[in-house]
Amino acid sequence: MAGLRDSRIQDWVGIHREHLLDMTFVDFLAEFKLAYLPKDWEEITRIELLQLMQGEISFWDFSVKVQAKNSVLSGTKSHLDKTQLRHRIESGMDAKLALCCCLEKIGSEGTLAEWLDDMSCVDNLFRTERANFDALTKSSRENSRRNNAFAKPSHHVNTNTNTSSTNCIALPKLTAVEHQLLYDNNGCLKCQCVFVPHRSTDCPNDFPDAVNYKPLTQSFVKLIKKRVKKSVAAVANSSNDDDTSTSSAPAPVAVVMGMMSNPTAYTAANLMSVIEGDSFSDDSVSPLRSESTVQSVPSTTHASSVLTAPHEDMAPLSVPHLYWKCSASGAEFPVTFEALLDHGADTVFISEHFVSELSLKQQKLYNQMSVEMAMPGEGKKQVVHMSHWVKLQLHDPSGGWKSKSIRAVVALSLCSPVILGLPFLSHNKIVIDHDVCTAIAKDSGFDLLHPGTPQLKPAPKKKLK
Prior knowledge:
This protein is of the alpha+beta class and 465 residues long. Among the domains are: 38-123; 171-235 and 252-298, no CATH class; 322-441, Cathepsin D, subunit A, domain 1 (Beta Barrel). It contains 13 helices and eleven strands. A hairpin with a 4-residue loop joins strand 10 and strand 11 (438-441). The two termini are 57 Å apart. Residues 231-311 have low confidence and may be disordered.
């Protein structure tokens, strides 16, 4: 009964549990069919069986589909025996395949299994020949188009078709690594500049040049961050020391060591302004543009007021753990509990008591796993040995998200029923943001820690007119 997933059927089982446990399996199926299957389910299934056709799928897949549908009718008057099943498969198979088998008399005297194998071999041969013919036709058509300059109407001057144009080069799509670097370093997704005050919605720049485009790397971001943090070396006053008259004219900047008055700029406009001594060359970084220029400093501003110390932010001594309220299939009904999200653990662990509660089947590890405790007791090392694992699949109680199946190592005692380590996080593509306390699945956008939060839908792509 634990395999019944429908909530209405689970409620029905819970109400009549004692009565159903006293029944035999045959009587239980009969009462189950009477309660939940429509009265004409046999006729509907028989009609679906008789309407099945091979179409574009392979013969083997079609035969398996027919046999599976026929197995549903097992024990009824509509169930087909082996002879009737063979006739039903023959009536729905591809016409060319049926004609070939009829002329060659393939499998006319063998069993049903032998006939299915012979027919599958012939069908695979037909499909291979058809694929080779389609490939040959496509290659011939492409060669004809390439050699014929007047194959289609053209509004341009007739030129050599071998001449390539750089105008057709498209800007490559940002990778996941580049996305993360831009997010972590105040970057713009349009112009791909880092440490800038704007975003793609209000970006004043154009897209990068596709011809000279180079991917954004961590080493380049570190180099730019290093230059942005450098200080103003000297500020010269435009007036002499003896001159006591005040002036509102700005004073020129004498020397700037890799830093602008507006720290949003991140790269030099030309190669001559690059400070020598760095190990990075122009070929190892993307040719991104400078965002802003050095602003003038008023004459009343001194160097001590420019060289201000950064604000020091002290981290808290401890922060709460991240727990995901999830559900797992139990012996009879789903069990809801809180699992610990731990990206510092290289293994998924489950307590032995919780394995018994879920009635999970344990399997033995090939090699015994030994774990040393982080805090030894009485100055001695404590080593825990684990030898079994279970298959586990979790889902959100709201039904909005379900994880992929994972393997969890059984431990004697844990601080949480389940500790979800890196195998769970990486296999399900979970991205954890400790700042806002979110754990979002990249594939669906579902937030495990805030299931009520609406999922972010990607913006629709613009169609070319």
